[in-house]
Amino acid sequence: MHHAFLGPFWGNVAIIAIAGAITIGCFVAMFWMIFRPGEKDPHHAKYEILRKDR
Amino acid sequence: MQATVTAQHSAVSAEDDRALAAVFSAYTVSATCWLLFATAVGLLLAFKFGAPDFWAAKYLTFGRLRPIHTNDTFYGWASIGLVGLAYYVAARSSGTKLYSIKLAWIGLALFNLAAVAGTIALELGYNWGDLEYREWPWPIRLVFLAALLVTGWNLIGTVARRTTEDIYLSNWYTVCGVLWTCVIAIVATLPWYQHGLGQVAISGFYMHNAVGMWFTPLALGVFYYAIPKILSRPIYSYALGVFAFWTNLLFYPLLGGHHFLFSPLPWWLQTTAIVFSVAMLVPVWGGSANYLLTMRGRYRDMTHSYPLMFIFVAVIGYLFGSTQGTVEAFRSMQAIWHLTNFTVGHSHLTMYGFVTFAVWGGIYALLPLATHKSPGRLGIALHFWMALVGSFIYVIALSIGGTIQGLDWLHQRPFIQSVTDMAPYWVWRGAGGLLMFLSHIVFAWNVWRMTSGQTGNAGSPILARTEGAAA
Amino acid sequence: MKKLLQIAGGALLVYIVIVMGIAVIPAIDLSKTPPGPGVKPLTALQAEGSAVYAANGCAYCHTQQVRPLAEDKVFGRPSAPGDFAYQTPELLGSERTGPDLSTIGSSKPSDVWQYIHLFDPRAVVPESVMPNFKFLFHVVTTVPPGETAVPVPAAFAPKQGEVIPTRQAKALVAYLLSLKQTPMPGYAMNGGMGGMTSAAPAAAPAPTAAASGGYSYDAAKGQSLFMANCSACHQATGEGIPGAFPPLKGNAAVDADNPTLHIHTVLQGAHGVTIGGVAYSSVMPPFADQLSDADIANIVNYERSSWGNHAKPATAADVAAVRAKGP
After folding, report:
1. Mind listing the pLDDT tens digit for each residue in B217-262?
2. Per CATH, which fold does B2-463 belong to?
3. DSSP summary character for residue B72
4. Exposure check for chain B: N or C terminus, fewer CB within 10 A?
5. Total of domains in chain A
6. Residues of C in contact with B242 (CB under 8 A)
7. Chain B residues with CB inside 8 Å of A16's CB?
8. Under an 8 A CB cutoff, do C228 and B256 touch?
9. Range of the domain at A41
């Protein structure tokens, strides 16, 4: 594979590290919301929408 | 509570309802016409792989018809169909009438004007280069932009006069989807800053953003409204829907460069595209889990609710198609699949298995509520199964064929072998495509029954429930 | 209203910032990429041809981007940023149903081949699924002065009349023939025919004694190399195309016991030669830069032993000797 297209090693590491940290953080948040959906308030928008429209 | 309900009732008259139904119907009928036209062209294109000399005249040559197929499915069928749904969802979920019926009609005229003019221009050989999905000459792109601006204004106006406290999540997706796409249209159209490799960078951006920041949010907006309505059950996690909205916004625009891996585009653009293709799994898996958990335990409802079946297939299409996209973005995978027919299978898995099924599910669930007319059970079943089986054959054939094509290249066989090896898979693709097209004819018949013809016996599950409650 | 403004305005703003960073600013920057050494703007006719290429959607099946992968070597060296300085609209393409065209101007330098192929691709590549572009040609009863008829093989030619290219066809072929790569320092020339010296040693050891052994060569490799590099013009039957590309079957140079002329033609190409009393105007590209001595020996031996030819085999050493003598 051509070297010039892969860019500097540490440059790649930096992008992957930053993006990886964001991704992992978001994955944790995602699973948190899946396991603890909460939202028990009966006036929450998600329940309001089920009442007859208008 | 009682007071607000009364207030809302007084805000919308029966006449407003009829006007909204007329707009929704007109968008659906118009979209359906484009679907029939664009997929008839697609079927002809599939046939040409086996018979390249068939209708090879100037105006019927493959290279002119192909962008007509892609642009008209994008900007004729899916865009118009989704905007019609967005109007209905915006008005109903906001407990109000449409901000402007007139603007909605103007928007419809502009969308159609752009698609007709674009089709004619491509037929005559006027294009802006073979730039995937943005071949229309710029004046036509401006007409499309005008249609978007009108739509955005109208949707915002509708949501602004809502009688509910919150802006329901669906409207986040649809309103912002329209606004983002205005930006995309401007960025893609302005010609004087993109030359040579610079234009390649915009192509990579455009190819993915026109899909992921336009069709995806509008289709997800339909999910967040239709799934709870059909099941009479709230979305599993509203917060997760909000989270998916923001992560989709942050990650999706960054991954366009993965269409040009191994190209001379700067390395950081390519690496960023790859890593954020992985990050995209957050909104995709989070969103899909949210829909599936909402449906959890209620899968038996599907056996007597085709609208739910359509939406279920769309959710699975979203999950698989997007995950496949992430896998394809790795350099090692792309060394095999990039530039092969595998990518055509991928685009159909997403634009058809996800977006198109979502539009259908939305229309079957919601249009009967507006028009009080339903399709027949046989019609909706025929449509569903032919479209599903057809797209299965289509995607599987091109996935296998594309892999063989890529391996032929990898093994450095004479190039022509990758062409001859594809022959049987192109035949299967044509067979799948034929089933898909036939299902669209049945769909057109169903739309006729939901709008103008005689009502059938497959009422929307939402309609059945509200009528049952009333009785 | 405030809530709506926060969501819609916020999301719009975030998006604009991202789009500027990931697309618009890099695009402005990349648009200033200087042309690579030797990369020239298109002539008026070539530019017209590029428009014909785009209008008829050639880029939906043909890429113009060579990736730095082994499998892409047949199409030339990896594409460099400077290659695209004058390419607006960009025609990199996203599918490769047909071969990449980055170096088509050097691998198929014959305009005659290009015309026949456009008129009916199956006349030269039987397995092709490319549509014909007959609408870019006229059929006339008498060829007007200044025009040259395209020697379409009888089986594919119109029943009556001669085929002549329209201006659009001429522009398109001028554009296709302009598609060549220029040598790029630091980019391994891994194939293609850009004219850069190859890794093959220029001064190979002179052949020792006579070729040893009988008629042994890698027949499968020879056939596959022939199909990839030669059959587009000389055809799988070795019969060529009458009036356009000479036959190899029964060809005096191919069927001669001395392989020098045969090897020399493959290495250095040919132009305007007369074979068997027929003058051929077509250009044959040189293969010296992209094929090794062993590969060329395999090709010539496949040709020398096929279609009824029975010439003495050549060896890699013979090829090296002819190569050493230069053009």
Report:
1. 999 999 999 999 999 999 999 999 999 999 999 999 988 878 777 8
2. Cytochrome C Oxidase; Chain A (1.20.210)
3. I
4. C
5. 1
6. none
7. 271, 275
8. no
9. 3-48
| Distance from C-alpha of C158 to C-alpha of C139, rounded to nearest angstrom | 8
Interface test with B, best of A49, A50, A51, A52 (most B CBs within 10 A): A49
**Is the pTM value of this prediction over 0.95?**
no
Q: Where are the domains of chain C?
A: 44-178, 219-325
Angstrom distance (rounded) from CA B428 to CA B396? 9
CATH superfamily of C219-325: Cytochrome c-like domain (1.10.760.10)
Residue A54 placed within a domain: no
- For residue C236 the two structure tokens come to 């799988």
Task: DSSP for C109-120, please give it.
Answer: --HHHHHHHHH-
- Give the burial string for B168-206 (b: 16+ CB within 10 Å, else e): bbbbbbbbbbbbbbbbbbbbbbeeeebbbbbbbbbbbbb
Could you say which architecture CATH assigns to the domain C44-178? Orthogonal Bundle (1.10)
Contact criterion met (CB < 8 Å) for B234 and A15: no
| pLDDT tens digits along C52-76 | 999 999 999 999 999 989 899 889 9
Contacts with A29 from chain B: Cβ below 8 Å: 243
DSSP letter assigned to residue B252: G
Q: ipTM of this predicted complex?
A: 0.93
Q: Which chains touch A (3 or more CB pairs under 8 A)?
A: B, C
Chain Cα centroid distance, residue A6: 27
In a domain, A20, yes or no: yes
**Would you say residue A35 lies in a domain?**
yes
